[in-house]
Structure prediction request, 326 residues.
Amino acid sequence: MNVLIIHAHHEPRSFSSALKDQAVESLRRANHEVVVSDLYSMGFDPVSDRRNFSTVKDANYLKQQAEETHASESNGFAADVDAEISKLEAADAIIFSYPLWWFGVPAILKGWIDRVLVAGRVYGGPKLFEGGLGEGTKRGMVLMTTGGGPDVYGGWGVNPSLETILAPVQHGVFWFNGFRPLEPFVAWSPAHVSPEDRQAYLASLDVRLEHLFEEQPLVLPNAADFPNWGTDIQNRYMVVVTRKREPDEEYLHRLPDELRTIELWKRQGHVLDMQAAGVAEPNWRAFLTMRAPGKHDVESLLKQLPLAGYLNFDITELDNIGMAQR
Ligand code: FAD
Prediction:
């Protein structure tokens, strides 16, 4: 398989660069073809303007997407952009390797995204989401270092959740273009952990990349579920979960499996959100927001929970209040 790594760190001896080097080594050992666009060492120009093109559609008004469509039809991309599009077209998986900067990607990588993901050759018309360049089967992975630790990005921290922070890449770049996002690989605060912990990050990346193409990607919704770019044809449900009886030893024994099942459903797009009271709360409740074609599908899923026998499920279909108000 062909893997394209887009790397965006200005220091070759950084930990981010060490992760990139590890990724190259691990993927080549697994017999994949690896191409690296090391944006700083290439001197990649991140500024998106007329220098993206050798052709001109409208010299009086620069409308980037119109120029991109024209350039796609007339082989009119600048050599640096054209080379990157060709690498992207050949890739079965893309990896964005970067340090988290200002809750986002470094400017040089944002410039690559802005200049290389062009209307026409890369996306547009039916070429989006499951119909996109990645055909709904190719893969996208984030390989990221951070300053903050996992707690600040865990959903209860002072920063937005990791999922929110990565949505522009996972949803806006990978999935928008038909590349199924994988679980991100995050090396938390590499500058503040022990040398052993940094080695452990490299070792776990090595193990993970051996099976890059066997991993179950995260499921984000297909564009086909939103006809005419409207709202979801699948329904949303609020499930209020209460206990039939107090937790016993068996309950606690099954709890880890229960949580793993919920995590899996989140990855598969069945559960959009879950909040639960602490296990010891006398008036224990959990709240799930679920996405499914019908109530029956929600009921069938909930029956599969390892703790289903202990629980009551009160399922309410949700309304799209935002749309109703418009
Ligand atoms: P480095 O400091 O380069 O490396 C850490 C340590 O690893 C160093 O001691 C290095 O010597 C060592 N190392 C290198 N190679 C190896 C190896 N092979 N084996 C073992 N050790 C090795 N953080 C946030 O959380 N959120 C933000 O929004 C954010 N915004 C930022 C914005 C900017 C402009 C900047 C500059 C930083 C920001 N940060 C933010 C912090 C940034 O994310 C981290 O500094 C960065 O991700 C750390 O990764 P690094 O590769 O640069 O670490």
Remarks:
- Residues 249-267 form the longest helix (19 residues).
- The mean pLDDT is 96.
